[in-house]
Design a protein that fits this description.
- The structure is a homodimer.
- Chain A is mainly alpha-helical.
- In chain A, 68% of the residues lie in helices and 0% in strands.
- Chain A is elongated.
- Chains A and B meet through helix 9 and helix 10 of A and helix 9 and helix 10 of B.
- Chain A binds a DNA duplex through helix 1 and helix 3.
DNA sequence: CCATAATATGAGCGATCACTCACTTTTTGG
DNA sequence: CCAAAAAGTGAGTGATCGCTCATATTATGG
């Protein structure tokens, strides 16, 4: 009659009721992060806002960190969905057009959920398991490098790795700062101008 | 015989002994921030590492935030001292040379105390009084804009404010990422290459 | 229908935190 | 030398935090 611990699962949610619970917890975490920041997102409060007991929270998330990671993954997935397709198109375009599209896509990505993006990028202490939560997605880097390789003949740059670093870092910083820190950049017209400028910046640097 | 509260001052340290206490506290805070990060820098621990009682800490710093602000200010001052003079020189140089010098100076600034710089830039929750602790110094922005104005005839860009935003953001991100996140960029040779590339990036964007 | 598994509950534990205050020790200046 | 000001002390407070667990409720499948 030995009872194996009931607290074991802490992972899978098989029934619909529990899937709803998990969703509510992730959603509540995101909402609190946006409204009050990381420090105020205590597990007790997350559970309360989600309308769920603190015990249930720990059935599915072994720690506060796991909760934040889930929010980040959901956000990343939303971005990927929004941007999907455009990337494939871009890979075939010539440098000038490709760079403009790329900057435009970067802006689009930052506009999916700007406030959440900002919190995830700037407020989450990158300690412990949260360390891998890179503000900058290494996938972007690899993708860019691949583009440069297949368009080598149009380029003046020789070290493609270095060039990728320069371009990806610049585009990311530019779009991030513009969308999340520059109140002047809110209008569509201003954003369009920014896209032009960002594209010109990296095109001039890359093109033969 | 009414005693006015002794806890009032909380600010000025007139004797040498107390100045040493304040120094020890700021130094201890910086050391803990670097070694263990913001979360582990509890006021009790700062006092302990500084070899000072927690009571003394609160004589001079009304809060943990004040302590961190002090560390940030001291760091900023060290950077300013290191970079002093070079800026004045740069303002007179033509665009191509000026941009190279500027990127070099930015690298130098990030190398003053890289680990501390990284913690201050990435780990401090920008809430409450810490919000003004900008990762990016608006002074740099103004300085850059002033340079562009006095060299307008050499430039193809029209909107100097936008151009400043583009260049300052890019240079900052480039040097920050290179010095603090790219292990490959540790050697002086690699840094020299980075400076060349960064300079070329913004020069091509700016120059007529 | 009912045994079992899945899911949900929330009081409360131990740890830690930022911070206070009544008090002692040291320094200063006349 | 001494009174008063400056500096220093640390046990303790109250709040909050992440998290556990014994127990209750609900769903599933034979």
């Amino acid at each position: 009659m030995v009872r194996k611990p009931v607290i074991k699962p802490r992972k899978t949610a098989s029934q619909e009721r529990s899937r709803a619970t998990v969703d509510a917890l992730v959603e509540a975490t995101a909402r609190i992060l946006i409204k009050d920041g990381f420090d105020k997102a205590s597990t007790n409060r997350v559970a309360e806002v989600a309308g769920v007991s603190i015990g249930s929270l720990y059935q599915y998330f072994p720690s506060k960190e796991a909760l934040v990671v889930s929010v980040a993954e959901r956000h990343q997935q939303e971005i990927t969905q929004t941007v999907r397709g455009e990337v494939a198109e871009i890979m075939a375009q010539p440098v000038e057009r490709a760079m403009r599209s790329l900057v435009a896509v970067a802006v689009k990505a930052h506009r999916v959920d700007p406030k959440l993006h900002r919190v995830l990028a700037e407020q989450i202490p990158r300690v412990g398991k949260l360390e891998k939560l890179e503000a900058f997605n290494p996938e972007n880097y690899t993708l860019f490098r691949t583009y440069l390789e297949s368009h080598r003949d149009e380029l003046r740059v020789e070290d493609l790795e270095l060039a990728s670093f320069v371009c990806v870092t610049s585009i990311e910083a530019l779009t991030h700062n513009a969308v999340l820190h520059q109140p002047k950049m809110l209008s569509d017209a201003a954003i369009e101008t920014l896209i032009d400028e960002g594209a010109r910046l990296v095109t001039g640097y890359l093109k033969r």
